[in-house]
Amino acid sequence: MDLSQIEKLLRAYQRGEFDTTEAARQIRNLHYEDIGYARVDHSRSTRQGFPEVVFGPGKTRSQIVGIVERLVQKSPNIIVTHTDEGTFGEVRNVVTDAEWHESARLIRIQRDHTERGVGAIAVVSAGTSDIPVAEEAALTAEAMGNRVERVWDVGVAGIHRVLAERELLQRARVVIVVAGMEGALPSVVGGLVGVPVVAVPTSIGYGASFGGVAALLGMLNSCASNVSVVNIDNGFGAGFVASLINRRSEVLD
Amino acid sequence: MDLSQIEKLLRAYQRGEFDTTEAARQIRNLHYEDIGYARVDHSRSTRQGFPEVVFGPGKTRSQIVGIVERLVQKSPNIIVTHTDEGTFGEVRNVVTDAEWHESARLIRIQRDHTERGVGAIAVVSAGTSDIPVAEEAALTAEAMGNRVERVWDVGVAGIHRVLAERELLQRARVVIVVAGMEGALPSVVGGLVGVPVVAVPTSIGYGASFGGVAALLGMLNSCASNVSVVNIDNGFGAGFVASLINRRSEVLD
Amino acid sequence: MDLSQIEKLLRAYQRGEFDTTEAARQIRNLHYEDIGYARVDHSRSTRQGFPEVVFGPGKTRSQIVGIVERLVQKSPNIIVTHTDEGTFGEVRNVVTDAEWHESARLIRIQRDHTERGVGAIAVVSAGTSDIPVAEEAALTAEAMGNRVERVWDVGVAGIHRVLAERELLQRARVVIVVAGMEGALPSVVGGLVGVPVVAVPTSIGYGASFGGVAALLGMLNSCASNVSVVNIDNGFGAGFVASLINRRSEVLD
Amino acid sequence: MDLSQIEKLLRAYQRGEFDTTEAARQIRNLHYEDIGYARVDHSRSTRQGFPEVVFGPGKTRSQIVGIVERLVQKSPNIIVTHTDEGTFGEVRNVVTDAEWHESARLIRIQRDHTERGVGAIAVVSAGTSDIPVAEEAALTAEAMGNRVERVWDVGVAGIHRVLAERELLQRARVVIVVAGMEGALPSVVGGLVGVPVVAVPTSIGYGASFGGVAALLGMLNSCASNVSVVNIDNGFGAGFVASLINRRSEVLD
Amino acid sequence: MDLSQIEKLLRAYQRGEFDTTEAARQIRNLHYEDIGYARVDHSRSTRQGFPEVVFGPGKTRSQIVGIVERLVQKSPNIIVTHTDEGTFGEVRNVVTDAEWHESARLIRIQRDHTERGVGAIAVVSAGTSDIPVAEEAALTAEAMGNRVERVWDVGVAGIHRVLAERELLQRARVVIVVAGMEGALPSVVGGLVGVPVVAVPTSIGYGASFGGVAALLGMLNSCASNVSVVNIDNGFGAGFVASLINRRSEVLD
Amino acid sequence: MDLSQIEKLLRAYQRGEFDTTEAARQIRNLHYEDIGYARVDHSRSTRQGFPEVVFGPGKTRSQIVGIVERLVQKSPNIIVTHTDEGTFGEVRNVVTDAEWHESARLIRIQRDHTERGVGAIAVVSAGTSDIPVAEEAALTAEAMGNRVERVWDVGVAGIHRVLAERELLQRARVVIVVAGMEGALPSVVGGLVGVPVVAVPTSIGYGASFGGVAALLGMLNSCASNVSVVNIDNGFGAGFVASLINRRSEVLD
Amino acid sequence: MDLSQIEKLLRAYQRGEFDTTEAARQIRNLHYEDIGYARVDHSRSTRQGFPEVVFGPGKTRSQIVGIVERLVQKSPNIIVTHTDEGTFGEVRNVVTDAEWHESARLIRIQRDHTERGVGAIAVVSAGTSDIPVAEEAALTAEAMGNRVERVWDVGVAGIHRVLAERELLQRARVVIVVAGMEGALPSVVGGLVGVPVVAVPTSIGYGASFGGVAALLGMLNSCASNVSVVNIDNGFGAGFVASLINRRSEVLD
Amino acid sequence: MDLSQIEKLLRAYQRGEFDTTEAARQIRNLHYEDIGYARVDHSRSTRQGFPEVVFGPGKTRSQIVGIVERLVQKSPNIIVTHTDEGTFGEVRNVVTDAEWHESARLIRIQRDHTERGVGAIAVVSAGTSDIPVAEEAALTAEAMGNRVERVWDVGVAGIHRVLAERELLQRARVVIVVAGMEGALPSVVGGLVGVPVVAVPTSIGYGASFGGVAALLGMLNSCASNVSVVNIDNGFGAGFVASLINRRSEVLD
């Protein structure tokens, strides 16, 4: 709720367009559409430059289709994460330009391709198995108007692989590093660059990786000071945060 | 075992209706029916105003049907939780007015609709994915004689959504708040109302949500003093506790 | 922020008492006093019938004294938890009727003794070592206008001890059960009474009690449906929740 | 390796029946049969009055059949745990008197029915869902020559149910208590009897039961001093330990 | 509450010695002495052949002295665990024959030295550092009328040390094994003997021993079927359970 | 190691200033000063616009003084975290303009006050007890050339407190949110602003806060997409990351 | 990157074969082949005497085939772990001499059979269920040029079984010990031999084995000083480490 | 117990030097000295080329002195770990050439300086704060006859520091890597060398380092195949294992 909206309401009220009860109600009933099982949040786009992402698990297919239908009326770019091809089929029935990204298991609708970033976002994966999460981050960043550089399979046990990409990394405005197992790559990359590193632990590994906990802890304890962390397998979140870091000042205002 | 029952037995004994051995046995053999695999507890209804709920997992379908058959003879309202539609089919064969609630995966038999509450119980869900657990709470509260207000999808990342429902929340005698992921909603709601908040963490989330542990810990550490917590995904328990909080004094006595 | 307050402001605004900017500011600047290191929340008392409790750890003594000084001007009853006798000494210098409760390590100021409860609150401890936490709950409930019945040392390994108090427990409007080690007492008490049970795990125990985790998990998994749980050693929270459950309807309104 | 066997070997050696190398080898090569994927331990029966139990998981069906075939030549009573009906079918092809116990998912061969116990072993389950594990304990105890009393569904939330069985429990030489969820029953039973209680946590529950961890911790922290604990769902182990406790002195020697 | 006591009360009641109310009260008010902060349990001795042990932590010194004073009037042998020499000094002021055991940090009063065991109890420690816990077990077993064999420092990394004691171990009626670090000794001892093994994990170790958790998990997962487990550092519990296992039938009845 | 440095070395080599062996060694021996117990990293300043922070724990006072002495020769601004006043005393002996910040337990040397940020960094604390960590973040951000807005004690249980600061928060280029207990504040703030939120869990709390784990998990599972997280109590890291986000493009290049 | 390679490049550069830019690029672009989804690391073979192993999970079948195709051109021996028979079928289409090892679920290509070890590697399994992991270790060690001695099913509960193999174990240059459940076998073996023991915990077990955590902790806390540990179920890693320990000096150089 | 010793005993027995009972006893009573609270293991030196290390915690000073006194009679080199200077004072009273190592908190007696290694052992620490554990490893390796290269403070956030030492690392026969926080250094070093890496996690760090758990998990999940791991802070164990890896063949035999 921004001040200008309240002031506008107050002036209408002062002009006698509403009575006191209605004015109070309008001030409090902020901007979302209630469709029963969800409150579709149309003000988020104003606040963050992007519509609400739809998190798939726990929702029925028809709920997802319903939410997407509402969002698409107000917002050019939409992402559905952690979903499946069947849901995509139903979404495409109502939104024909929806795209399916198999590796990331993600539906994307992208009608606006304006570039909004200061520089590039580098997305780095430690291993081949981490690519799906890295791809989720990259697709999100692109949907939010960024140029993305993908760097796959440069894990620390062959340190020369990441060193060979140092120049590319040092040109980026922000780096996303995606790694499972011991999650050591963000520390190494963090030491190579002078920009923020957004670290994404993945659930890749077995035994004492505990579904990504080892990588998560490694990243939280990074000895590189420029590393912050998002949830295990949360490629979307990393892409979102990196996009806001990279956003041009005039877009933010 | 209430005193009046013992006294009644003692008087019968004093009148010589039982010998000493039989009197001692009757005092100890309290009120339940042993059907081999279960001791169906007919005294619980007296004690708590509600029959034993049937927790589905680990029981065969025929065990569940058998238990329901006994309960239904003494008790008008019964709930079977964490069950499936196949079990419901078998229950309906013997109890034709049983209802199936798909979202909550719950069988309900409700023959008594007396209202027993002082006020309304508000049931609030943070996200669309949390609705099944919230619905379990709401259905339980209704079965126990309460008026229920459902408020879905008002999670804290769009704080205006819950603020818009403040009035409804402040009218309730008790609020149930159901949330997964970071489980922050009970703290916010707790700060808005002056009544008890029963918080239910859900297993919705992924990665470091650890099947609901993140939400559970968030709720246990709530900085709002009026919050107490039940087990992860335990909508039934929340509905039960809230019903007892809302119960009219004359019903409790 | 309740509707009547907004409406009052709007009318003053309509009468021209404030300009638009000031009206918008007042609507948003809600009720608290900013003293630099804390925002003392004077609206909480209106909302919950009790002033903000002061949680001691991490605050300097002079911060605690400063906060208490502000609170005492608006609120007759105040509690400082997890504190020490030295802090009490400094508080008493400025609030001479403050009381020190050694066992619970709690400062209480109680100037209002109005009874606000429907019935009594029973506070039950499993062992002698659990008394400090139970006492914190009892002192809180008394400060909030309740009659409290204390029942100490009735743990489940001598089940006859709690059975002997059944009558007392069954007369209460709500029961607080405080237990460490395996935390089994709330389940047993929950089965004996037909009112809500607020369970408080304590950190009493050693080895695999893990500082109260064993008791906490036991209580969260209680097979008694009328049990809800607060944080480990959170006697204050249990006393607070129980007080709201016991509150007379006319007080809540 | 018992002393008498070494002495016998030494005498044969002294009589010149073996040379020094062979004698040393025989002393060290103790009593088992190597069948490639397993060393079937024929000395265990001598040492513990029972053949090696076969733990199913991780073994192929033909490995299980092979091991059973060897064991059955030396030992009248055999148990295969955590197995399935398909494996049973293959075992019965070679051992026609093998029995399948569906609830416990256990194969039992019992040719020797000698009673070896001082008294009875009571096996108690907290809920209906805990019966499979309790049944595994009971079947094991019977196979080891004990009289077993089964007491099902006497969980602590209806404390009168277990109190009603106090007499039966107090007559047993040892009590096995099987419980999931909060695992409180062993403490209550432990307080009622003056004999050892062997507690078995089960994985029954959900959410913060963490697959039986809540019950396990509850039992390890039992305030009853006569409780010891075996692994989650380890009905076999409890039956085994209880059998050794109940064993007559002349059998032990 | 045993049946004979109820029957006796009932007969007195039938003879008119009490009225109905008094009879009901007496039946329910079972056997303990309420001293405010504790309910001293005089019936436990009848039920388990031993008075309530006093667990020190969380009790003030004067509470411990008070409890011991009451217990000593009815019971010849008493143990206070997890205590300190200062408390011992105060206990000795009122019970002059109390003994202080520095290593186990335990106060013992032992006036009755009757032997109640079938055989000996072997108490085995894996390392020198585990002796305090092992000593707590041994002192408890002695106080409960058992002959104890101590076997110190025979951990599995020098397997010949425990093998050298095999004969002693095989003569015992029950073996207590106390081990920290990896907690492997109970499995080895369990394989050597045909009697129950009570395993006690200790908090000895560092790093990934997690205060005894590694040893505890090792023991719960023992591949020897005759092992049951008590809490970390719970020497008392192991001594208690072992004493009940070793108890002569005529003592149990 | 940047390309221009290698090229410069190669040219010197080509001119014959070094032989081949020496050239290879120089290429590999990169930029740090070895003082025995530490390799002081003078190239970090070039890479990240800030000297190496000194993490106090595990280092002796004289090691800290030694490291600071080397750093101060090349770098105008230095921070020592998690340290104490005694160490500060020794540092001030050699660097007289060092400042001691008691609340944050941090030594700061700040000789360069150039502003390098695009906008302001808002630092928000949920409670008074979280101020020390928040202060560490704020001091770090200032040392790195940023304008900082401090907002203390606006936790979610009194949601109006943070709403009242919405305007200030919405003007910042990046927001740091510091919270203990349930760690819910970053989600609420994340929903209010359209810039990156760097969340810092603190170890404030007790019981099931597990030293900050509850807050950490809450933040990792935030339903606000613009939140990334640093380690528990890592105010320094948050200040560092936020400074890089806020850095002007011309400073980054 | 070894010095001799740099020196060779530098000489070519000095001879004018490259310009400065190209020389710098070549020094940094180290040895791997980029195939889009993976950087196949041809320098690892030089560094460690073995090609990169292919870890199956998270990779598509065509990715695995693609990686194997590249590796096989430079390296005679290759291993794919944690894979399935379907993948093997596709690999065999392009590499006809690939072998499928069902128990270990591993594809092996072995064209070079040179022996590179000083002595034998003993691979020991505690139980029959641990054989798949043990077999993965043994197959790896063979592929790396070692003679392997397999010793199956010698768990500690029948200590005579491992004692009987002492001689074989004492002849080995390094021993791999594979165990699930309590993971005690490495400590016992460690005490019997004077060479390094590489311990592999397996996920065999149930309940409190927590998927191998109990065994892992047991091994990390081993009281035998010659034990080091690899990840749960990581037979490959153990075979690899053991091969390097056993490697002849002339092979290492 | 080696075969030759048994054969010698058997021959003496055959010559009639012992009777049968005595021979059997001698075969079983293997090589250690029982001093009451400890069994000093004189055969370990034969088995592993090194006397039993004395682990300090949980032992009284006089116990440590007593154990050292016995060991010193048979073994030239002894280490006491995790001890303090006071204990050192008492040890030096009886063993005047004992050395105190403050950083590692370790007592060393080293009378034999024979070199037993094939090559050098490199000991690497990630940070200055990790030096005490690294020093414990280095001192152990020296005491076992190895040449040690110390490389301090080369953590991964400044990757050029470890790359600068590549040559030194590649010359070693085995590398010990000691790291706290995220524990990433062993993976990087593992990728640089072709020999075994023994990784030691340290408890250095705070917050989500959980006393070394983050580093431990990082190392167990290392993507470098040549890494094995010992317990948190177990410098001694790493030094021991590395010494056995480096041992010359003729010493092992």
How is the quaternary structure best described?
homooctamer
Query: What low-confidence regions of chain A span 5 or more consecutive residues with pLDDT below 50?
Result: none
Rounded Rg of chain A: 21 Å
Order of the strands making up the biggest sheet of chain A: 8-7-9-10-11
Average residue pLDDT of chain A: 87
Counting helices, strands and paired strands, the structural category of chain A is: alpha/beta
Largest interface: B-C, 42 and 42 residues
Shape of chain A: globular
Largest sheet of chain A: 5 strands, parallel
> Cα distance, first to last residue of chain A?
16 Å
Beta-strand residue fraction of chain A: 15-25%
- Number of strand segments of chain A: 11
Could you spell the SSE succession of chain A in H and E letters?
Answer: HHEEHEHEHEEEHEHHEHEHEHH
Q: Number of helical runs of chain A?
A: 12
Determine the fraction of residues in helical runs of chain A and give it as a percent range.
40-55%
Structure description:
8 copies of one chain form a homooctamer. By secondary structure, chain A is α/β, with parallel strands linked by helices. Chain A is built from 12 helices and 11 strands. The first copy, chain A, has helices at residues 3-14, 20-28, 43-48, 61-74, 85-94, 131-143, 159-163, 166-171, 185-192, 213-220, 235-246, 249-252, and strands at residues 33-34, 39-40, 54-55, 77-81, 99-101, 106-110, 120-125, 147-151, 174-179, 197-201, 227-229. In chain A, helix 1 packs antiparallel against helix 2 and helix 6 runs parallel beside helix 11 (235-246). Chains B and C meet through helix 3, helix 8, strand 11 and helix 11 of B and helix 3, helix 8, strand 11 and helix 11 of C.
